[in-house]
Amino acid sequence: MSRKSKMSEALKYEIAKELGVFDTVSQDGGWGNVSSRDCGNIVTKAIEIAERSLGSQQMK
Fold first, then answer.
1. Among 10, 13, 43, 47, which is most exposed with the fewest C-beta within 10 angstroms?
2. What separation in angstroms does the CA of 7 have from each of 2, 15, 43, 59?
3. Distance CA 34, CA 17 (A)
């Protein structure tokens, strides 16, 4: 399995907006200019969303 991103671009942008780093992504030419800390925060948030989603599916 490759290490290519499995997170949708739409989800990345949504989380970036929520965390306040969307301007960096949109103005500075992409994800390469986002700090490691902010990228880590985006991943952490995505994991939280996935865990909530799995939790709600298991309760059904």
1. 10
2. 13, 11, 9, 24
3. 13
